Structures are given as structure tokens and as C-alpha cells.
């Protein structure tokens, strides 16, 4: 989306920030301008077994090199899997970052650079990237939902990221949709994620075919599910339709609760399966009050693979 006021602004006067996206397998860092342009980026393995200090060393080294290119960096944003204590700047206990538990990441980065440092959770970073770079000039209230192997979400309310107490707001994937549904990865029964994520739909497909005594190939992936569904295989089509319908119900509950203007859908499944996205968008109004129905807009995520560090940088740029 083109924002007129920023086109008038010369690129020389635009703010720049560093964004860091910490994941269980890799860490990505980017130098990002406030119009969303990535000026420099790098990616390296997290090496969780090696502990956080070796990763910190690499981060500091690279960020130092960014300061030589761009001395006017206004701050450093960090996106990390939760749970986090974002106020104290501590990584609490993300399951895929075992050796980082309790690590005072913000303090470590801050003592190296003496600049503004902000820590947010990774789903919030992706959500805020979509809001800040694509929609902030038009909307103030947005729900972001990402659908891939799991389902995550983020909330932008009154133009600001809403994080909740332990950066746990927007966990749309773990809203309870049924009292005796499938088991979710989180240990609860009947979460939205267990119905509508890639993993959830594959499990449902397998169970359905087995109950019909039809073969299920263990090598099949989500792609096979959607392809077979599209080509008229009844069971696959039913599973996709049901997954889309549960997702629409989950989204509609969030919409009824928060009354946003915009719902942005992202994640591997939404981006690869436009018909799934359409099914969801068409089904949401079935579960909404009339006045909510009239005012809701849907969009597909457009910040791509760098949304993680771009959103972390945006958290600093927005202040
Ligand atoms: Zn769950």
C-alpha cells in the first residue's frame, strides 16, 4: 500500500532501526527503514545447544557493522518466541530455546550499544510488521492470524501493539472450540489450532481415512491434502472445508470481542492456498453480528519472510 505522506518525505530523512528475529533454528537481523525497505540483512544458525552467549556475540558483531554503515540507527527491536517478560527484557521459557531460559537479552544488547532496545514476541512482531508497513495509515484496529503448522496471532488496538501481561495476548490458536475435539500440541482438547492448522487438518484427514478403511500415505503433506481436496477427493475436501469453517468461527469470536476494522491472514497455508483463504473469508460473516459484518475488511499478509525482524524494528520505529 502506498502512503502519500511518506512518498513526500525524502528517503534521507527516514528513520532506521535494527530488527532481530530469534528462532529455534536461525537468527535473522536486518537494518530496516521506516517505509519498510530492508537496507541490509544477515541470517545465521541459532545453535541452541551452544547457548545464548555465542549467538549474542554474533548479533553484536553484525550490529556493530551496521552502525558503521548507518550511524543514525534509532534503536534495536528483538522478536523472540515466548513466553517473555518484555518489560524486564527477559526470555522466560520458550520450548524451542531451552538454553536461553531466563536470559536477560535486552540488558545484554543494551550494554553493548546504549540505545533503545525493545523485546516483543515473534507472533506480535509478524503482526506489527503487517500493520506498520502496510496498514497504519488507514486502520487503527487489526487482528493478525497466522496459519501454518500451528496457529498464532497478534492484536493491534488503537494503533498500538496490544501484548497483554506476559506478551501472551492474541493466542487465537488456543481458543477452545469444542469440549471433546482433537488434542492440541499445547495439551488442551479442542483448540482452534487442533482443528485448523496444517498439523491439525492432516491429523483429521488421517483419522477420517482410517475410519473409512482407506489408505493414508505417511509421506503426504498439507499440499497433498489441498490438491486432493481441489481435485474432488471427498474426504480431503471435507477436512479443508471444516478446517476453514473452524478458523472462521475462531476469527469471528475475536472480531466480536475486539471489533477491529481489519483482519490480516498470513502463514504458509494462507499464502500457498488462496482457495482456503477465500473459504475462511466467506465463512466469517456467517458468525458475526450484522454491524460487525458490515465493517470488517480482510487482507493477506504481504511482509514476507522478513516480517519477523521488520516487525521487531517497527516496534522501535513506532515509538
Ligand atoms: Zn492449544
UniProtKB/TrEMBL annotation:
InterPro entries: ATPase_NBD (IPR043129), ROK (IPR000600), ROK_cs (IPR049874)
Family note: Belongs to the ROK (NagC/XylR) family.
UniProt name for this protein: ROK family protein
Organism: Jeotgalibacillus marinus
Amino acid at each position: 500500500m502506498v502512503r502519500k505522506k511518506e512518498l513526500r518525505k525524502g528517503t534521507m530523512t527516514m528513520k532506521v532501526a535494527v530488527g532481530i528475529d530469534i528462532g529455534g533454528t536461525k537468527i535473522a537481523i536486518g537494518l530496516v527503514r521506516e517505509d519498510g525497505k530492508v537496507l541490509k540483512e544477515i541470517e545465521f544458525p541459532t545453535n541452541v545447544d551452544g547457548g545464548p552467549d555465542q549467538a549474542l556475540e554474533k548479533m553484536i558483531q553484525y550490529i556493530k557493522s551496521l552502525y558503521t554503515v548507518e550511524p543514525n540507527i534509532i534503536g534495536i527491536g528483538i522478536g523472540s518466541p515466548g513466553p517473555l517478560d518484555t518489560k524486564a527484557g527477559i526470555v522466560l521459557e520458550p520450548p524451542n530455546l531451552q538454553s536461553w531460559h531466563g536470559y536477560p537479552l535486552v540488558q545484554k544488547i543494551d550494554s553493548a550499544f546504549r540505545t533503545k532496545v525493545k523485546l516483543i514476541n515473534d507472533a506480535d512482531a509478524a503482526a506489527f510488521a503487517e500493520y506498520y508497513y502496510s496498514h497504519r495509515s488507514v486502520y487503527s484496529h487489526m487482528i493478525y492470524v497466522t496459519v501454518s503448522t500451528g496457529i498464532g496471532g497478534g492484536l493491534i488496538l488503537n494503533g498500538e501493539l496490544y501484548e497483554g501481561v506476559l506478551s501472551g495476548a492474541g493466542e487465537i490458536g488456543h481458543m477452545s472450540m469444542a469440549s471433546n475435539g482433537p488434542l492440541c500440541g499445547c495439551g488442551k482438547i479442542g483448540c482452534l489450532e487442533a482443528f485448523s492448522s496444517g498439523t491439525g487438518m492432516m491429523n483429521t484427514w488421517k483419522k477420517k481415512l482410517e475410519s473409512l478403511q482407506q489408505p493414508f500415505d505417511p509421506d503426504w503433506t498439507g499440499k497433498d491434502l489441498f490438491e486432493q481436496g481441489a481435485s474432488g477427493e471427498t474426504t480431503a475436501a471435507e477436512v479443508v472445508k471444516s478446517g476453514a469453517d473452524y478458523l472462521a468461527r475462531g476469527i469471528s469470536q475475536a472480531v466480536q470481542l475486539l471489533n477491529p476494522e481489519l483482519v490480516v491472514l498470513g502463514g504458509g497455508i494462507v499464502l500457498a492456498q488462496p482457495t482456503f483463504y477465500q473459504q475462511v473469508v466467506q465463512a466469517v460473516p456467517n458468525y458475526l453480528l450484522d454491524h460487525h459484518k458490515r465493517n470488517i475488511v480482510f487482507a493477506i499478509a504481504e511482509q514476507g519472510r522478513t516480517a519477523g525482524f521488520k516487525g521487531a524494528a517497527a516496534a522501535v520505529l513506532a515509538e
